[in-house]
Amino acid sequence: MPYTHVVFDLDGTLLNTLEDLARTGNYVCAANGWPTFAHDAYRFKVGNGIPKLIERIVPAEYAYDSHVLEATYTAFCSYYDAHKEDHTCPYPGVLDMLDALSAQEVQLAVLSNKDHMAVVPLVEHYFGNRFCVVQGRTDAFPPKPAAPATLHVLAEMGADPAHTLYVGDSNVDVATGHNAGLSVAGVSWGFRGRSELEAAGADVIVDTPAELTQLIINGRVSS
Q1: How many Cβ atoms are within 10 Å of 26's Cβ, its own excluded?
Q2: C-alpha to C-alpha distance for 51 and 46, rounded to whole angstroms
Q3: Pairing of strands 183-187, 204-206
Q4: 222 pLDDT exceeds 90?
Q5: 112 and 118 in contact (C-beta within 8 Å)?
Q6: With pLDDT > 70 as the criterion, what percentage of the chain qualifies?
Q7: For position 126, what pLDDT does the model report?
């Protein structure tokens, strides 16, 4: 069956934000005199929200120091807010995919573990009004993969879970969709790659936005 509603993850799915996230993480580490990380390492540090990212980059001796974690979180958000569009861009083919889906009257939403105050301007800047619901992390809901935020987005869209697809690039996204009773399409072009999506149990994995367009409109990927 074709899908009438689609909920997209943001980082690693629609936008390649890795460079700006890595630069921000390393900026706050260097400012504190802590070790920095290869940018590619951030592929596995992001995905569970900025508070969890902070826990993953601070040295072990500060892992339970709430003052250090809070100060690092504040510094990260401040720097990222000023630099979140320095290197970020949509993945090739994503804009064409979104426009093709909109032309078929498929309703589109974004659900991200990135802080809501960062998600909204990023989506507006790169995608305009292509999404009817945009939801980032807030204190109102636990972060993905817990179901409440996803269920909130479905309610805001008026979506039937049986005809809604969740799309993401990581094991967090696979769990997010399944926890809310949705089918999940994994995208291999993102941060984590095909092997993680397969291990996590994605219902289908696509390699290009064009394949994802076929899946959503036709209910399958043409051979």
Answers
A1: 19
A2: 10
A3: parallel
A4: no
A5: no
A6: 98
A7: 97
Residues 6 and 130 sit within 8 Å (Cβ to Cβ): no
Work out the average pLDDT over 20-45: 96
User: How many angstroms separate the CA atoms of 10 and 94, rounded?
Assistant: 11
Q: Is the entire prediction scored with pTM above 0.90?
A: yes
Confidence band, pLDDT 50/70/90 cuts, at residue 43: very high
Cα–Cα distance list, 187 to 180, 192, 212 (Å): 19, 9, 8
Integer Cα distance of 44 and 21 in angstroms = 12
Residue 203 annotated in active site: no
- Mean pLDDT taken over the chain: 95
Q: Per-residue pLDDT tens for 130-159?
A: 999 999 999 999 999 999 999 999 999 999
Tell me if 108 sits within 8 A of 131, measured CB to CB.
yes
Q: Residue 170 in contact with residue 176, Cβ under 8 Å?
A: no
Q: Residues 9, 11, 169, 173: which is the catalytic one?
A: 9
